[in-house]
Every structure is written in structure tokens, then in C-alpha cells.
Known about the structure:
- By secondary structure, the chain is mostly helical.
- It has one domain (about 1-205).
- Helices cover about 85% and strands about 0% of the residues.
- Helix 2 (about 20-25) packs across helix 10, helix 3 (about 30-65) packs across helix 7 (about 110-120) and helix 4 (about 65-85) packs antiparallel against helix 8 (about 125-135).
- The longest helix has about 45 residues, at about 165-205.
Amino acid sequence: MFVAVFASLISVVNPLGAVPLFLALSKDHTARERAITARQTSIYFTLILLAFFLAGSLILTFFGINVNAMRAAGGLIILASGYSLLSGKFEQHKAVDQKVRQEAMHKSDISFSPMAMPMLSGPGSISLLIGYYTTYADWWLRIGIMGVIVLCGGVVYVTLKTAPALSKLMGEGGLKAISRIMGFIVMSIGIQYIINGGVALFRQAML
Length: 207
């Protein structure tokens, strides 16, 4: 189960998709400064997802949102994220446009914004984790999922720290090819979420 959760979450997060933006925004950084930014980004990313995972049920209760409606809506977001990967418009989907890029170029710290949020942790990953929180009621399972989130944070750190080497090794074409493969997987996850949420809502309406 935890392997499936990790595979789904890391696919939606897609740290490789953040490599071009990270390199562009840190082009004037030294290797040490880039490593520090990578570490801070991974820490912020982990804390953001842990917070939304633990507070997920409270958020749904506060706004009076049915968990199955959230799954269906989250599935649409994940589906759109996957399509953006396939079409090569991942940054635009994450609301990282040219204006955001220009603002980030003049910031001393890019780790929280735009890297940790919205580039890595966004509505897709957050809705996915809220769905997991409501699906797995046993706390030992939830603690395991929290461990998966921390593991994803480690993957984000390693990916960003080695971003220059990855870019040289794989090239822009290689990164885009992997992103398109990940896009197909992410779209499949989104469709499954839409089906699960829609079927559950239909059953509730029939009661």
C-alpha cells in the first residue's frame, strides 16, 4: 500500500519537472547556495504536505465539503496536471508564468515560493493526501503515509541538489520525455479519482 501511495504522490509532485525552473532561478547561485536552497525547498515541501494531510478532515468539515466531491474535484485537478505534463505546459499549470519568474529572479530565497509552493506542492498533491487521510482511518497507516511524505521530500532534495548533473545527463529532451511519461500516469490517477468519487456520490444520491 505504501509503495502505491509513494508512486502516486511522487508522480503528481513530479520533482523532475521542477528541475528546469530551479536551474533558471538559481543560475547565479554557487553550488553551496543551490544545495541550501534545495534543502530548504524540500523542508518547506514536506511541512506543507504534512500540514494539509493532518488538517484535511478539518478543512472538509469547516467548508462542509463531502469527501467524495473532493475526490472528484481533486481528480479533475490531477487530470489537468497530467495533461499539462503531456503538453509541456507544467509550469503554466502550476501558475508559474513569466511574471512569477521575473519576481523570483529578484528574490533572495526561492525555496518557499515559487519552488515549494506552487511548483511542487499544489492542489493535486494536497487533494490526493486529503483523500488518503479519509480513506485510511487507522493511525498506523496514516503515520506510514506521513513517512511516505517525508520520503518524497528526500527525493525532492536529491533531485534539486543534483539538478545540474541531471540536466547535463538527460538533457532537455530527456527531461521532457520523462515528464510526458509521468503525465500519462498522473492522468490515469486523476481519472481513477474521478471515477471513485463520482460512483460514491451516485450511490449516496440513490440512498
